[in-house]
Structures are given as C-alpha cells and as structure tokens.
Amino acid sequence: MLSAGLAAAAQPPASSDLVQVVVTATAKKGAPPPIEQSTVVVFQEKQRRPVVDWVPLEGGRTMNLALMIDDSVGGGFGIQLDNLSSFVRALPANIRVAVIYARNGNATVAQNFTSDHAAAAQAVRLPLGSPGAVDSPYLALLNLLQRWPEDGNPGQVLLVSHGIDLFRGASSSAPGVNPELRRAIETALRRGIVVNTLYASGRGRVHRNRFLVSNGQGCLSRLAAETGGEAFFQGYDTPVSFKPFLEQLGENFGQQYLLTFRAQPGKKAGYQRLRVDAEVPGVKLTAPARVYIPAAQ
Fold first, then answer.
1. Is 1 domain-assigned?
2. Is 229 among the domain residues?
3. Phi/psi of residue 118, each to 5°?
4. Residues 130 and 223 in one domain
C-alpha cells in the first residue's frame, strides 16, 4: 500500500470549464525571456480559447515531484546513484519530492513527498535489476497516479525505466497498441500531471532485443510527449551519465508556468487536442498534447 500522502487524487468539479496545465518555455538559444500572459495563445482543437491565468512556477507555488525508478533496470545503473541523489538534493525549495520504486505493477514508496530533499536523496537506492511477476512500468505508474496527493498543487513525475512492457506479450509492447501506456497517459492528463522519462536499460536477453528496446523507448517518448514532459535518451543503452539530462530537467522546472484557460465543453466529456503558443520570437511552449474537458451542463 502507498502511504497516506499518496491518497486518491481529488477530481475537479464536473461542471467547471476552467482547465489548468503546466507549460514549459524553451528558446532556440539560451534561456527564454519571461513570458507574459498577453502573449500566450491557447487552442482547444482548432478553437482559440481565453487565457484566464498564467503564473510562473519557479520560486512560487509548491510542486509535487515523484522520482519513480523501475526496479528492473540493471547494468550500469550503479554509477548513476550519485547523480540522482545530487539532483534530488539540489531541487528548489518549492518542490516536494517523493522517491518511488516500480515493481510488479505497483508503486512502492521509499520516501513519501517531503520538502526535506536530503532525506529524499538518502532513499535513492540501487534497483533490484530483475523483472517482477508483472512486467509493466506503466501499470506501476498508473498505480502512482491514481493515488496522487489531493493538495491541488501541480505535479510531475520523472520515470527512470527501460520502458519495455511485456505484461500482455511482445505484440502489445509498441507505443501505439499498449493499453497500459494509454491508461497511464489518460490518467496523467485527467489529473494534470506531467511525466518526464529517462531511459535506462534492463538486464538479460529481452533488453538486448532491438525490437523491444525500440518499443520501450517509443513508449517512453509517447508518454512524455502526450503529457507535456520531456524524454531523455542516449542510444540504446543506459547513458554514460544522467547528469546532463537531470540538469536539463532542472532548467525546465525553472521555465514552467501554470496556465489556466476557459475550455469549451462539448456534449460528452473526453480528451481534446491542445496547443499552446507564445507570440514571442524564438520561444517554444510545450504543453500536454490533449486535455480532459468535462461535458457541458
């Protein structure tokens, strides 16, 4: 069981037409300038929608971050522990962090959400390096998302995994057909949680199979892209060092905003395409690819 700090997430009122998402600003060169609300343009499907609020997250509102490590990742991971621990210790004061391990389709808490980054860093350990009976990182992620804190704060996940899901066999391991991946994405979208992914290889013959490795990386890429996160890779193996990727993620945290816009509800509730742009030269805004829109009342 997950601890009380990961209780079932509260759902927004079904009648509400206000939608909140986390948006990351990046620039072609260097750090982007501060983005003003007046320059932000939001499209729900092809319809432009009004921006209600646009608040920078850096140094302000509390954010919940779960570092989720797949317990089945293996070779070459040991040298990454210092990088992960240093990343956790260096997080900004407004970020509450939890350390979670994914195994057997469940999210096991090593450290509950806390502002004590030093304590969370001490909870980072070597993964077991062998698959469990239920070999699906996305079922474990779904388990985490379904029990996310109901404190109303923005949330993000950094999932460190090989991404290979054999729960339903190799034929269902591709990103376009994996039902567990789809459920995890839709749950993250429903709860407004951004999922970032960092590839680390597993052990054994399965993880030397280029077809399965490509499927795993494709799943991790889709998970990040659809929820508004970033996917980090370095070829088909565990990166020589996680440090540059973790530094990039840390920079992203400092360039994020909480966007509130007024959606146009339809006859039925469901997921609709979202696009967020900034009328600022050389700046790109990354947001979830879809949002959950409740039905009109």
1. no
2. yes
3. -65, -40
4. yes
